[in-house]
Prior knowledge:
This protein has helices spanning 16-20, 94-106, 159-162, 193-200, 202-205, 344-358; strands at residues 6-14, 29-51, 63-70, 79-86, 124-129, 136-141, 148-154, 171-172, 219-221, 227-230, 242-246, 256-260, 267-271, 274-279, 287-291, 298-314, 328-337.
Amino acid sequence: MDRPKTRTRYVHVNSLHRHQQSSNDPVDMDVHLHRPIKNVLRCHVKQFSMGNTFHNVRTGENVLKWAEFYEPDGTSGYVGKVFSVAIPPGYYEADILCSTINTLIANMSNHKVSADDVQEQPLGMTFSQDTQFYTIKIDFTNTSPKSKWFCPVGRKHTIWDKLGFVDNQVVNANKRKIIGFSQQTGSSKHGDFIEGFIADNIASLIGAGGQHMDENATHEIAPGINSHIKGVMPTLIESPSSIYLCSDALTSGSTFESRNNPEHTHTECVPMPILEYIQFTTSRFSHFHYSAKLPHYHYLNEQNISRFDIQLKSGDGNPLYFNEVGQFNLVLTFETVDHDEFSEEFVKAYNQQGYEMLHRPDNIKI
């Protein structure tokens, strides 16, 4: 099959103009074309420039969650409760982030598992950074009369990842990594998925001799004994690695991303509206410039494009708010198909010319 005759068009997008428009969507940038680009065969990102200055604790990725378990006085079983602190979005160095978390935990109004046991005391927690290995440590102090259990929890990607806590140190509700998970997890009797997950799986997490698969994820803090845990890896909170450039209008389902299927433990790949994956190649507080060496084409089947959307997502796949990432410049390449087009007037003139050529006196024979 012969390759169609094509023409290349370029669109330059400056995110500064997004901030000047009256948009209520904090993560989308809508671009309207003065003249539609017709018959778009395919498009790709040609260039992208952005300052490596945006927040490393961002909206949607700023909640630190953990679960605590305690056996209240007069009962014969543990109860669990999920606690969380919301860290204000911004840029944090690791030691400042630890200090901020400590302040938020100290100011919690209800840091007790049981509302009925007057002898239970809030679990003392202090985050700090090891200055030699750059790992994050949590020191615990339990002044309650009985042991408490602690485990970091979350779904998908969490701040725990960036603090250097590896997979088997965090109870990931999406992965269902615990033996005997209840299939009622997240049911209507619980308002929050994580709370439902913890409530339905207490026995698997800490009871029955510790049947959880990842023994590094849950920790017993005995009364009157100071203890601690720390992340296996150095913290990465100060060094975001990449972003995804995304668009629903300019992608066609040909790019796939891995995820955990919510119904089973398999890893699967599903279509995602990813225009391009941008890796950071410069240090903090400098600009990085991406220029496509091998274009990542998105075939659009000769659509007519009159508007398109742009979103930025973190390397973990979470949407980024434009007021938390700063400005960027983007150049898009559109390859369009040129079809031979004939107007009604042209067809009439062509036919008339043919008629006249065939009906000249010298062509008429009697």
